[in-house]
Design goal:
By secondary structure, the protein is mainly α. It has four helices and no strands. It has a single domain, classed as Substrate Binding Domain Of Dnak, Chain:A, Domain 2 (Up-down Bundle). The longest helix has 27 residues. The radius of gyration is 14 Å and the shape is elongated. The mean pLDDT is 93.
């Protein structure tokens, strides 16, 4: 975990959730490409990559104590919800897809809290 002693425990938790979601989305891209078919369609791979990227960006903004982290967290929550829904629809008992959907939901919930922290 990066040095975060000056950040609130809620923000530290959100950073952890964002980094975990970033990682599982990238791992799921590889999994889906290996499966092929509907899992490897550009729209689905694009969703996973977009989710990974916004999670990384949100974590970075929080680590930098950016004045814009509420906005990035708000967008991150939206993208994570969409990615979770898509992964769940494609899961059909696939452990990796279920794991990705769960990580996206956890990240979305945490980012929603951060997005509304200053509201």
């Amino acid at each position: 975990m990066p040095h975060t002693k000056n950040l609130s425990s809620e923000m530290q938790h959100c950073i952890q959730e964002c980094l975990a979601c970033h990682a599982i989305c990238l791992e799921t891209v590889q999994h889906c490409l290996g499966l092929g078919g509907k899992h490897a369609k550009p729209k689905h791979i694009g969703m996973l990559l977009s989710c990974a990227e916004i999670c990384h960006t949100s974590a970075t903004f929080m680590l930098q104590s950016s004045d814009f982290h509420e906005q990035t967290c708000g967008l991150c929550a939206e993208v994570c919800h969409a990615c979770a829904k898509e992964c769940e629809q494609m899961a059909a008992g696939d452990h990796t897809m279920i794991q990705c959907a769960d990580a996206c939901r956890r990240c979305a919930r945490s980012c929603e809290k951060m997005a509304h922290a200053m509201a």
